[in-house]
Design goal:
Length: 112
């Protein structure tokens, strides 16, 4: 049996996940939604919603975003039109950039 890989996260990442999970839980409670109701609407398990609300960093990001939208947490502090505009701008910028990054190959000088 393979050993599970232990992943470490920066303090900033852990705090950001904790903030988002707290916002999700607060919004769910303010909207008087049960964990089961949110899970059904998101098409995920009740346990996954509970893990999201605890800030578990191993949760699928799509599920976290979907739960956030369902309970009314605004992602990126923007409305849907603003997110769409930023997405188009990012796609336009990415279209101008190289498809991949490669390190320059250094010639080895082995003349002694």
């Amino acid at each position: 049996m393979a050993n599970p890989r232990v992943r470490t996260y920066s303090r900033y990442t852990r705090k950001a996940a904790s903030l988002l999970s707290g916002l999700i839980r607060t919004a769910r409670l303010e909207n008087k939604l049960t964990v089961q109701e949110v899970a059904e609407r998101a098409g995920v398990s009740r346990g996954l919603v509970q893990r999201i609300e605890k800030g578990d960093l191993k949760c699928e990001i799509g599920a976290v975003f979907e739960v956030a939208v369902i309970v009314g947490v605004r992602l990126f502090d923007a409305d849907e039109n603003s997110v769409s505009r930023h997405l188009r701008q990012t796609e336009d910028k990415l279209a101008l950039m190289p498809k991949s990054v490669r390190k320059a190959h250094k010639e080895i000088d082995d003349d002694f």
